[in-house]
Amino acid sequence: MEAKSKGEQTRRSVLGDAHVDRSITAMTSFDAPFQELITASAWEGLWSRPNWSKRDRSIVTIALLAALGHEEEVAMHVRATANTGATEDDIREALMHVAIYAGVPAANTAIRIAKRTLDEMKSVSGGSKP
Q1: Distance (Å, whole) CA 98 – CA 112
Q2: CA–CA dist 110, 20 (Å, integer)
Q3: Distance in angstroms (rounded) separating the CA atoms of residues 104 and 3
Q4: Residue 17 in contact with residue 29, Cβ under 8 Å?
Q5: Centroid of chain to Cα 1
Q6: Which long-range contacts (CB under 8 A, 24 or more apart) does 17-20 make?
Q7: pLDDT tens digit sequence for 57-102
Q8: Is residue 3 predicted with pLDDT exceeding 90?
Q9: Contact criterion met (CB below 8 Å) for 81 and 63
Q10: Could you please report the per-residue DSSP string of 33-91?
Q11: d(CA 72, CA 12)
């Protein structure tokens, strides 16, 4: 069995084993180079840096994705807060910043996605806070 890279370990710690396992299972020769790129650059080169906590990176990532209108990625990173330590309050504050610095429509969409995703997380966990 091949040892997991630092990037894959970090990716798993943030997104969870189930998400990463699904990505690996769905990987084809077409997207394998892309998966390798994001694992090395995003998860090892950026998320594994010691300067910020995973919570800090999570908050910034949610704000950036919301500002850019990347709805599926917003939901994925809201789900990841269960692993990063970012709270609902953190998510709300990040999206308030998006409203002022990137626009109300972007924040409005992201708030809708975050609410839905947080509700889904609560229903899966039996109503407890994610």
Answers
A1: 13
A2: 23
A3: 45
A4: no
A5: 27
A6: 19/76, 19/79
A7: 999 999 999 999 999 999 999 999 999 999 999 999 999 999 999 9
A8: no
A9: no
A10: HHHHHHIIIIIIIITT-SSS-HHHHHHHHHHHHHHHT-HHHHHHHHHHHHHH---HHHH
A11: 18
Structural domains of the chain in order of their starting residue, each with its CATH number = 1-51 (no CATH), 53-130 (1.20.1290.10)
Contact yes or no for 61/90 (Cβ under 8 A)? no
Can you tell me which residue has the tokens 């917003």?
74
DSSP 3: P
Torsion of CA 53, 56, 61, 63, to 10 degrees: 180
pLDDT at position 127 is 64
Q: Side-chain half-sphere of 81: how many Cα atoms within 13 Å?
A: 28
Question: Cα separation of 18 and 121, whole Å?
Answer: 15
φ/ψ (deg, to 5) at 113: -65, -45
Largest pairwise CA distance in the chain: 49
Q: Give the per-residue pLDDT at 1.
A: 43
Q: Is the pLDDT of residue 20 over 50?
A: yes
